[in-house]
Write a structure and sequence with these properties.
By secondary structure, the protein is an alpha+beta fold. The chain has helices at residues 2-7, 11-25, 38-51, 55-62, 66-88, 95-109, 169-179; strands spanning 114-124, 143-150, 156-164, 187-188, 195-196, 199-202, 211-213. The protein is built from seven helices and seven strands. The strands form two sheets. The protein has a five-stranded mixed sheet with strand order 3-2-1-6-7. A two-stranded antiparallel sheet has the order 4-5.
Amino acid sequence: MAFRNFTRLTPEMFRDVVERLTPRLQKKDIWYRDSQEVGLKVAITLRHMAKGDCYKSTMYLFYVPHNTISLIVRDVCQAIWDEYGDEVVTNPTTAEGWKEVAAGYSSRWNFHHVLGALDGKHIRIWCPGHGGSQFCNYNGYHSIVLLALVDANYRFTWAQVGAPGAASDASCGTSRLCETRSSPTPSASPNLNLCLPTTVRCRISSSGTTHLPSTSGR
């Protein structure tokens, strides 16, 4: 229980992650310094993502300098994405694939013609050089936007990070999301004699948008 609370993974899952990431993260020892163990790198990164502490606070837990931690977190995150990205973020590329996603929402949540649930988060950053007000969001701090789309079982099907904080959820995600979709054609809605297009359900953003229309409905 303590280990899971610290890393957010069970010991078995942690060992599996370390084993899969070792080929990507293992470095050779040099004559004046041994390389950091992969398990240590993964533990540092998981703890940082779970707790959100700054690097200078995290270094007292692992006795690793904060400047080294900044490199470790970057390398491990990239390795996680390279190793697990195609496995856990499965974006349908055909109309039939999106129909399966829509069927999941229809059967489990009684939301018909829905291709995903979209939400975002502002990630606080220092204002980039010459950034002006581009990264200043409506809460008054500088950020970049993380957007993610999930299916009816909470599995990621699409994600985007890096849009400036001044952009709304709809404006920074609509074009990229529509480019990745081969949307199904409009079909009949249950209990209605209407042919309706598919949509992406969103929370109400600063622009007031509650759904993104399908490109096939235009």
